[in-house]
Amino acid sequence: MLQHIDREGPGLLAVLGEERGMNIQIVRVDQGEQLPDPNECNNTIALVLGGPMGANERTKPKMSWLQRELDWITIWRQQSKPMIGICLGAQLLAIAEGGYVKALEVGEPPLSVKEVGFGAVHWLKSSSTDDWLHEFNDSDVVLHWHGDQIKLPDTATLLGSTLLCPEQIFHINNQAVGIQCHLETDEQSLNSWIKEDIEFITNAMGKDGPRRLHEDAKRFNLSIEKLGRRFFEQVIDQLIENLFSHQ
Distance between CA 89 and CA 104 in Å, rounded? Predict the structure, then answer.
C-alpha cells in the first residue's frame, strides 16, 4: 500500500483486508522509503492512495519521489499485476496506462473548478451484466475531493461518472481499478480532512463549506460505508480471481 499523507489512509480497505486475512504493508515513498521489487511481489494487490498533490506535480522540485512511484506503477502494470488506485492513485494508474491528467474545467472559455463534497456518481454499466457492479443502483452518493480530471487510456472501461467530471471510476482489462472519488473514508478520517484542508474546501465551496461537509457527512456516511463495502468487496474478488486465473 502506497500512502502519501497521514490523513489519507486506507480506511475501509484496511478493514476489508484484515477481514480476509491479508497482510498489509504500508510504503511511504514521499518519506524516502523504498518500493518493493515487483518481481518479488507474488499474490499481491497494489493499493495506491490519494493525497493533496496531483499527478502532474511530479516534475516540481522535491517531488521526484512521485515520478519514481509512477515509474514503479508502470512496471507493475506492464507485468499485469492487480492494482487499486484512489484519487491520486487513480491518476497515476491512468498515466501509467497511457492516459493523462489535466485541470478540471467547465464552460467556454474554460474555467478551472474543484469537485468537493457529497454528490452522485452515475453508474454506466448494467449491474446485471457487469461483474464489477452487482446489485448497484443507477446512481449513488459518494465523496468528492479533487480539482483534476483523468483522461482515460484506450484500455480503460468507464464504470461511473458525475455531471462535472465524467472519469470517476474505471477498470483496466479486469486487472486494475481507478477511483477518482472516495468510498474508503470513515467519519474520523473525514474530520481530519476537513480540519487540515480548510483552504482547499473554502476555495471550492466557500466559507460555509466545512459546516456543509459535516452536516452532509451525518446524512451520507452510513450509506457510503455500505456502498464502499459492497463495491470494494466486488473489486477485490475480481482482482483475486483474475490474479489466480493467470498463474
Answer: 17
**Whether the bond into 10 is cis, omega within 30 of 0:** no
- Measured in whole angstroms, the distance separating CA 39 from the mean position of its chain's CA atoms is 24
Using CA of residue 6, residue 115, residue 16, residue 94, what is the dihedral sign?
A: negative
Which residue matches cell numbers 464552460? 107
The pLDDT tens digits of the residues spanning 156-193 come to 999 999 999 999 999 999 899 999 999 999 888 999 99
DSSP line for 131-179: TT-TT--SEEEEEEEESEEEE--TTEEEEEE-SS-S-SEEEETTTEEEE
CATH superfamily name and code, 12-245: Class I glutamine amidotransferase (GATase) domain (3.40.50.880)
Q: What percent of the chain has pLDDT over 90?
A: 89
Q: Are 146 and 167 in contact (CB under 8 A)?
A: no
Smallest CA-to-CA distance from 231 within 119, 152, 91, 135 is with: 135
pTM: 0.95
Please tell me the distance from the alpha carbon of residue 195 to that of residue 192, in angstroms, as a whole number: 5
Locate the domains of the chain by residue range. Answer: 12-245
Q: What is the pLDDT of residues 123-149, one digit of tens each?
A: 987 656 677 777 788 999 999 999 999
- pLDDT at residue 133 in the model: 79
Helix (H) or strand (E) holding 90: helix 88-96
